[in-house]
């Protein structure tokens, strides 16, 4: 099922919902469709264009959002799908300071890695093998990341995500698909 980007009345991206849920928001007059996907939804009585981006009609106060959740998908997006040691295609998650040696499972200590580097590095510190990271790992920032971390994507969303850090995210997405 396709997903739909939901914006607050202020145009701040709130999240991604399944198409059916977005359609209910529109039909209940709680949201307006800003972009159509080009597809149509058929019910017994009517046919409506499927939305791709909707905007809530009333502003919703969003409680403080903690750091972007550390998921495999979000991590691969942050690192452009590339191994942070050799630049090859990443297939695994590596703890820079190995967990067995007290390393945390946190944005600052995890990187995307290829299987070979992960295997060669094993449970050693970088200084022990003379390796360096291509970038210093840090938690992603910007609301666009919360959307990208879901793994759902639609080119129609981009203009709405650009003010929220999507350009950096985009460059990384292109890194993945390249
Ligand atoms: Zn590698």
From TrEMBL:
HNH nuclease domain residues are 70-119
SMART domains in alphabetical order = HNHc
Q: Which UniProt keywords apply?
A: Endonuclease, Hydrolase, Nuclease
Q: Write one Pfam family the protein is assigned to.
A: HNH_5
| Gene3D superfamilies in the record | 1.10.30.50
UniProt-recorded Gene Ontology molecular function terms: endonuclease activity
What is this protein's name? HNH endonuclease
């Amino acid at each position: 099922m396709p997903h739909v980007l939901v914006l607050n009345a202020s145009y701040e991206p709130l999240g991604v919902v399944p198409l059916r849920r977005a359609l209910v928001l529109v039909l209940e007059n709680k949201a307006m469709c800003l972009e159509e996907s080009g597809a149509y939804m058929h019910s017994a009585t009517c046919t409506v264009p499927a939305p791709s981006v909707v905007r809530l009609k009333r502003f919703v106060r969003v409680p403080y959002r903690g750091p972007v959740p550390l998921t495999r998908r979000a991590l691969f997006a942050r690192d452009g799908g590339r191994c942070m040691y050799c630049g090859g295609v990443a297939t695994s998650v590596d703890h820079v300071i190995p967990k067995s040696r007290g390393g945390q499972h946190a944005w600052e200590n995890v990187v995307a890695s290829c299987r070979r580097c992960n295997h060669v590095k094993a449970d050693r510190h970088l200084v022990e093998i003379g390796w360096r990271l291509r970038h210093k790992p840090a938690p992603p920032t910007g609301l666009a990341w919360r959307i990208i971390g879901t793994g759902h994507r639609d080119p129609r969303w981009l203009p709405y995500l650009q003010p929220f850090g999507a350009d950096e995210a985009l460059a990384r997405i292109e890194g993945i698909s390249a």
